Amino acid sequence: MLDVTVIEDPEAAAVSLDPIRARLLAELAAGPASATMLAGKVGLPRQKVNYHLKALERHGLVELAGERRKGNVTERLMRATAASYVISPLALAAVQPDPDRFRDQLSARWLLALGARLVRDVGSLITGATKAHKRLATFALDGEVRFASAADRAAFIQELTAGVSALIRKYDAGDAEEGRDHRIIVAVHPTVKEQPQPQPVPEPDRPTPELDQ
What we know:
Layout: E1 5-7, H1 10-17, H2 19-29, H3 35-42, H4 46-58, E2 62-70, E3 73-80, E4 85-87, H5 108-132, H6 150-171
Parallel strand pairs: 1-4
Antiparallel strand pairs: 2-3
């Protein structure tokens, strides 16, 4: 099972977005199960679950993990092909974001368009590398910083831009015939605050009924 996979096909994306099928994917990401086992968890008849599993299997979202004999019936144990899924902008090719339409380094929407292109391109590269049985050379850096003021944030971005630009000038070999182009994306955005989980409200103590002596 892959840790994460990118869905590029529009029909596969539509299948994965169905609430029941998304629930089945989540169950099968936790471990192999048969239609009978899943039926009790999702509250549907086995035949209905089988129908949804076949749709997921047709689009490569689940696969056969094995079979087991149960009485006179042979059950197919299915599993998810990945622990999690990301839908590529290619699934909405006609309206996918295009960061080349406008360029505004301070625009959150331009950052979103860059992120969408990152998902699309890396997803396509993963697909190609998997077919070629090759390892894909990538690198990612993730971190957090708390700025004391907007002025500090602006100074940080200025230094970051200067540093990355200097590295690009240093290592860019535009005339290297055997070289390969790489895309560099650097992003800064506020950290999303986690929403506090609602705490269960304790039930009030009920008086203990008195027993007749």
